[in-house]
Amino acid sequence: MTSPQAHSTYEHEFARSVEDPEGFWREAAQDIGWVRPPQRILDDTRAPFYRWFADGELNVSWNALDRHVEAGRGSQDAIIFDSAMTGQRRRISYSELLDEVSRFADVLRRHGAARGHRVIIYMPMIPEAVVAMLACARIGAVHSVIFGGFAAPELAARIDDARPNLVITASGGIEPSGPIAYLPILRRALSLASNGKQGTVQAVIVKERAEVPGNAIGLDSVAGEGWLDWNSEIAQSQPAAPVAVSASDPLYVLYTSGTTGRPKGVVRDSGGYAVALAWSMRNVYGIDAGDVWWTASDVGWVVGHSYIVYGPLIVGATTVLYEGKPVGTPDAAAFWRVIERYRVQALFTAPTAIRAIRRTDPELELLGGIDVSSLEAVFLAGEHLDTETYHWLAEALSVPVVDHWWQTETGWPIVGNPRGLGLLEVKPGSATVPIPGFQVEVVDGRASRCEAGTAGNIVVKLPLPPGALISLWSGEERFKEAYLDAFPGYYSTGDGGMIDEDGYVFILGRTDDVINVAGHRLSTGQLEDTVLTHPSIAEAAVIGVRDSLKGERPCAFVTLKAGLETSDDAALRDQVVDLVRNTIGPVASFKDLFVVPRLPKTRSGKVLRKTLREIANGDGLTVPATLDDSDVLQALQAAVTTNTKAVSR
Ligand code: COA
Ligand code: AMP
């Protein structure tokens, strides 16, 4: 139950952030160590392109490491690495991490990376991925971490866009299906990228992982290509000092799916991000120096950047780095054991992970005998938290379960229940209230504000607070077009939802062609482009259908070219599944395909995706008035009914 005190603290802080944003963030900036403290808090001279703390200078790796060592926390664990996949466990203190990061920063520098240069990091969930990120930050290089579940063409597209000087990788990751050999994927990506190894990429540095079973595809496999061994490079290094950068220098570029096939490179600044993360760790999550915090996600996602790496380290907490799954590695008690082993105080993960545990161990028999009493709260984000999962978890653990909503673009939560300010009453189904700094509104298509309880487009009034994206790597014009033009004066989130009479925000889902599969964001447009490269397919429409584990999963409806019809839909599906795995990656979880005689379209030729969704989800079908040909619905339903078993792998 909320105390009136918590409510008034939240309201006070929120009002302060709106009425005097500069005062609010000037104060928050004092929690960061600056080489040159900012005098100017908000630069609005180029609105709608804003900059926070623009004349300040700092180094983010110094804030995450040196500062804590200097303050006497050198022997505290900075990272606890636990791999359910290899059995490896390793504690890395702040002093040790500082040493490794400084040395790897020297390696980067010696191989040609400097302030402003890009470094691609394509690695599994191992401590070296964090070291590589922080080492980039130390020399002012801009990292771009690419999630390991993407295939070579996706990696190539990001290499082309980021134009990196260096690529850092590892010899292998491990998935339940077996080891993942990274080097052949990277090699193919480099040959696909227009600049290739001969272009901007001056060196590739590889962390060999002897512990990965079947680690046959190591450096030997690329002998003669001059790829460098992480360990030998570190052995020859000297610790490098942190380089002061401008607060608005980019810290990283992180690619996310948009409505087109071209991924968007979200540009994050250094100063605003550091301030926002320090503020959010304490005030949203209630975590501070010395606490043990675990974000079960991947460094390839924004959640990993903000709350596996930078957030917890900036405040001097201990961050758990977990390589494994919530179930099957080896069982559905994996999370509980990690919590017990390290006395984890707060866990952050995606609802999918909890649904996976619930599905496997609904009565929580495996929790018996495991001591999770250290746990004080669980935070869930990345996708909609269904009320059943919410209630199940809250009852199972008897700790607050906090839904919160944000995006790669914002870098930290827009809406949540700010535990550090005092938890507010929960309304299951709502992500709770706007976080200080975010002025959230719901507007209709004509930008008029919707009344309380009425659904519309969720927008955030400009300027966005510190820490949110400052641009897209492909340029400010694309940034403006993608996010700022639809509702002038506002940032358009791409999500729909409503705000009730108490100010609680309910997120109802994307209003664009983005779908969310197990907390991973995918573009249906990009999936369609890939499906259409199959020689037999004439037209394709990809939609998200409900999935009890992953929230949504992609499903393709296709028509075939005349003369290329097949009676073997399952064989066609297998070919398209492989095509998607090899072009986008296994992360797309693409398994469903329906061959239909025609796609339902409006008279102007637009595919009726809502109708396809209704049919695929088995919902009551509303026949659209704009439908060109009503017979198509019968044919579609027949195709889905007869083919469901045959084509869903
Ligand atoms: N490298 C290579 N492949 C990867 C990968 C990586 N880093 N991460 C996932 N994949 C592969 C998986 O092995 C799987 O391949 P498969 O089709 O051969 O089995 C595919 O991509 C889909 O992965 P995933 O969505 O993780 O599904 P899953 O069935 O393996 O596991 C869950 C299901 C629920 C256990 C898993 O999705 C999960 O833990 N989700 C938590 C959500 C999360 O962390 N979201 C991040 C945002 S907060
Ligand atoms: P990503 O940028 O990959 O983090 O994905 C962001 C998108 O995930 C948002 O735009 C939402 O559509 C969805 N999302 C994230 N958190 C939530 C949440 N708590 N509830 C509902 N949807 C969410």
From TrEMBL:
Q: One MF term in GO for this entry?
A: acetate-CoA ligase activity
Stored Pfam families: ACAS_N, AMP-binding, AMP-binding_C
Q: Which organism is it from?
A: Paenarthrobacter aromaticivorans
Q: Which residues form the Acetyl-coenzyme A synthetase N-terminal domain?
A: 10-64
Q: Which UniProt keywords apply?
A: Ligase
Q: Which residues form the AMP-dependent synthetase/ligase domain?
A: 78-461
Q: Which residues form the AMP-binding enzyme C-terminal domain?
A: 527-606
Record's protein name = Acetate--CoA ligase
Question: Is Ligase there in the keyword field?
Answer: yes
Q: What is its EC number?
A: 6.2.1.1
